[in-house]
């Protein structure tokens, strides 16, 4: 598996969640169980982030998109669903270093928010988007 995509079973589960949510505005228990089974301990906190509408889709005029997730700690994390990356410490440790998890709760919240139509929308200029990206780099140094 290359790091940019989820396993087929996870993709299918997210598709089923999207379909169920479009039809009934809720996620059935069997799909919630599937979420917990596939994504482990990230599932419930990710759903909490979705409920709190913590995910913002940031889009520039050129069509570049990134997601910002307000974490439970109050810190804003930047997620890139296109390359399956988050700036949080848990992603760096559990996903990249130890390969214990497929993703962190922030990226899962992005996928779930997209499936459930719960993303907030923010249009920014190219310069603002660049500043967001540069601010992330400075945090990591």
TrEMBL record:
The keyword Membrane does not apply. GO terms for molecular function: zinc ion binding. It comes from the Eukaryota. This is SWIM-type domain-containing protein. Keywords: Metal-binding, Zinc, Zinc-finger. GO terms for biological process: double-strand break repair via homologous recombination. Residues 77-115 form the SWIM-type domain. One of its GO terms (cellular component) is Shu complex. It holds the Pfam family SWIM. It comes from Chloebia gouldiae (Gouldian finch). InterPro entries: Znf_SWIM.
